[in-house]
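The instructor's notes for this session suggest beginning with a concrete chain rather than abstract definitions. Hand out the sequence below and ask the class to guess, before any prediction is shown, which regions might be ordered.
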Amino acid sequence: MGGVSPLPPLGRWYAQPMNEPTIRPSESLRHVRYEIRGRLARRAHELERQGYEIVSLNIGNPGAFGLRTPETMRLAMIENLAEAEGYCHQKGIFPAREAVVMQQQARGVSGVTAEEVFIGNGVSELINLVLRALLNDGDEVLVPSPDYPLWTAAVTLNGGRAVHYPCRPENGFVPDPQELAALVSPRTRALVVINPNNPTGAVYPRAVLEGLARLAERAGLVLFSDEIYDQMVYDGAEFIPMATLVTDTLCATLSGLSKVYRACGYRVGWAVFSGRTHAAADYLSAIDLLSSLRLCSNVLSQWAVQTALGGYQSIRDLVSPGGRLYESRAAIERAVGASRFLRLKQAPEGAMYAFIGVDTEQLPGFDDQRFALDLLEQKHVLVAPGVSFNVPYRNHFRVTTLPDSKTLAEVFGRIEDLLSGYAASAPADNVVAASARFK
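After discussion, reveal the predicted structure:
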C-alpha cells in the first residue's frame, strides 16, 4: 500500500548529523566580554550541581547574603498592584520620576524636572540606551580602568571604541584629570565616571571630580556619572554628586534601587539629565524613542521608588560602625593585613567591593585567572579576576563585601592556604598546568 514514509522519532531525527551551516553569532559580539558571569561562573554552577557548596563573591547581589529590601518598599508594590497591570509612559510612572527629581534637588542639582528622568529596567538597560542614542561607528568614550565591564561592553556593542583611562593602584584607584586630557581626540563623545567606584571602592575627592567636570565641559563631552552606590560610603568619606559640579555640558546621573536598597531583582534604575539639556534636545528625543521601542520598564517595581527615596535610609545603619557592611569591610582589612601575600593600598571608602592586589615579589608569575580557577576548583570560592575589569595588570581580584565577617574570615583563610601552596611549589610548573586547565 502506497503512502508517505513515517518520520523517524523526533529525538532520533534531531540527533542525526546534518549538513547545514553553523549558526554563528553577530560579529558585533567579537570583542564583548563580561567575565563576571563568564566561564568561571559557569564552572561554579557545574560544581554546585555536583553537590559542592560554593561561596560566590563574584557579584554584588545583596539578596544572596540575606540582606533584605526594606519592607515598606514591598508594601508599596502590593498596595499598587492594580495600577501595574498595564503599560506606563515610556519614561516611567510620574510618582517615581518626581521622587527622583526631589532627591536630586535635595542634593543641590538644579533645573531638573520629571521630563529629564528616564526609568529603566535597572541601570544596565539605561547604560545601553544612553550610549545607543549617542554613538556613531568609531566614536570614542573615555572609560575608567578598572571599570564596571558593562560600560566597555556597551560602548563596543553600540559601535564605539572604549578608551580606558588609568585609575592606578598606587594612587588609590583615583584618576588624574590631566592624564585624561591627553586621551581626548576629535572622536571622543563622552566621559564615564563611576563614583563610588566598582570594582575598587574608591570615592573620588571633590578636586578630582571638579577636574573631570571641567575637562568634559572644555571638550564638549557628555558626562555619564554612574552613582549606583551613592549612599554606600564609610568612615566619613564624602560622596559628591557629579551633577552639582557640571553646568556647561550635559550630565547624565545613573542610579537605582539595586544596591543601596538591596533590590537587585526589582530591576529599577534611572537616568537623570542636567546641565545643558537645552542643547541636547535631539539626543534626549532619541533616548525617548529607544525607551518607546521597549514600551516601558517594569511598572510594579516603579511603585517602590517613591517609598524608597522618601523613607528611612536603612543603608546608613549598614555602613556605620557595627553595621553589616562596615564590619565585613573591616574583616577584609584584617585578613589582608595579616596576609603574607595580599595587599590593599587603601580600604574601600565606598560601594560593596574590595579590589585586592597580590604581591608579585612573593609570588612571581602570579596570574589572576589561574588563581581564580584554582580557588574555585580547590577551595570552592568564586571571585572575579582583575583582568575582568579591563586592567593591563594580572595581580588583582575583586570580592564583594556582602557576606558576614565570619564567612569572610573563612574565605580569606582558604585564599591564604592556596597562595601558600603556590609559594611552596615551582612557579613554572604551576603556570603551565593551570593555563592548560583554563583553556
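Then share the key points. Residues 31-60+321-438 form a domain with the Aspartate Aminotransferase, domain 1 fold (CATH 3.90.1150.10). Residues 10-14, 430-439 have pLDDT under 50 and may be disordered.
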